[in-house]
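Go through this fold for my students:
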Amino acid sequence: PSALRAAAALARTSRHPLSRALAEASGPGLPAAGAREIPGEGIKAGAMRLGRRSFAAPSAPDAEDGAVELWFADGMSAPVRFTFEDALRADAAEAIASLQARGIAVELVSGDRPAAVAAAARKAGITRWAASASPQDKTARMATLRAQGKRPLMIGDGLNDAAALAAAHASAAPGSALEVTQLASDLVLQGALLAPLVEAIDVARSARARALENLRFSALYNVIAAPLAAAGMLTPLIAALAMSGSSLIVTLNAVRVRWARRA
C-alpha cells in the first residue's frame, strides 16, 4: 500500500492511461512535487521513478508473464512492479474489420511489451504489429510509410504519440487524449468507440467523390458555355439562368453527402 501511494503521487502528474489507472486504484491524493514526465520512459521526481523497467528499475529481472506493467522505485526500497489488464475498446474488433473491408491495411505500433501487444492485436484482428516502440520509432514508421508513397492515418491518445500523429498524412485522437495529442490530430473522436473513425473515412471518401464530380461538371459546363457566350449565341438572360442552374446542380450534388449519411 505504501508503494502504491507513492507511485500514485507520480501517476497523478500524468494523463497516460496506466498512470490514470494507478492513481484511480490508490484513491484521492496529492500529486508529487517537481515531477517531470519523459515521453516513452516514465515520470521522475527526485529519487522516485515510475515507468518502464529500463527507466525505473533497470536492475530488476524481466518478468516472463508478458503483462502490461509499470515499475516504481524510490531509491531506497526494492523496486515494485504494478501489472495491468488492458481492455480493448468495445467496438475495436468490429471497427478494425470495417476498415479492412474498405481496403485499408491496419497495423498496431505500441510501446508495450511484445506479449501484451501480441494479445491485443490478436483480439482486435490485427496481424501486423510492433512492440516496445519509442516515440521516435512511431514517427519513423510514419516517415517510412510516406516514403513508400502511402498516406498513413494514425490514431493515438498518449504523449508518446504526438510526434507521430503530426508526421502522419492524417491523424485522429479520442476525446480522452492529452490536449497536446488532440492538437496534433486532424480529427478528435467523441465518445469511447472507434466507429466514428470509420464513419469519418466514409464521409471523406464520399465528399471527395462529390467534389470531383462537381469539378468535372464545371469543366464540361465551361467548355460548352464559354464558346457559346463568346460567339454571342447566348442572351444575358439565358446566360444568367445557365449560371444559376449550374450553381444549383453543384450545390445539390454536394448535399448528397448528407443525404447518404441519413440513409
